[in-house]
Amino acid sequence: MSETKIYSPDPSFDVFHWERHPLDAIFRPKTVALVGATDREGSVGRTVLENLRRDFPGAIYPVNPNRAQVLGIPAYKSLAALPVKADLAVIVTPAVTVPGVIRECVAA
User: How many CB atoms lie within 10 A of CB 72?
Assistant: First the structure.
């Protein structure tokens, strides 16, 4: 009787494990741009930034055109001004500005 061998693919062809999965940018981002970050007490932008600082292990890039820093973190005037491409953009701006921010995301 001959032995049945279990097929074990060569790991060099396993494209799903050697490269980041496309959804990792959403579920496991390494960098986050927070558009609408602010240090104004009680604001959504501040609350989200505080939560990111406490729980997120990666780089955080606050985006606010009116501030040089937010909660001690250097802030950027736009997504285009970031020193790197962020994996994920969290938008916490008024609803009327969101379409423009999304256009910025696409351009970035």
Answer: 8
